[in-house]
Amino acid sequence: MQGLNKEINLNGKLIGEGHPAYIIASMGANHMGDLDVAKSIIRAAKEAGADCVKIQTYEPETLTINCDNKYFKDMPSRGETLYHHYSKCSMPLYWIEELFHEAKEVGIDIFSTAYDYQTVDFLEDLDNPFYKVCSYELTDLDFILYAASTGKPLFVSTGMATWEEIYEAVETVIEGDGEDLCLMISTGAFPSSTSDMHLANIRDIKNKLDIPVGLCDHSIGSIGAITAVAYGADVIEKNICLTRDPDSADAPYSMTVEEFKEMVDCIRDAERAIGDVEYGCSEADQGRYALRRSLFVTKDVEKGEFFTEDNIRSIRPGNGIAPKYYRDVLTMTADMSIKKGTPFSFDMVQPGVILALSDDEECFQGLFNGDLYQISHEVDIDMIKTLDPSQIIIYKYKYEISEEIEKFMEGRIARVERGEEAKAMIIKTFFN
Question: What is the pTM of this model?
Answer without folding.
Answer: 0.82
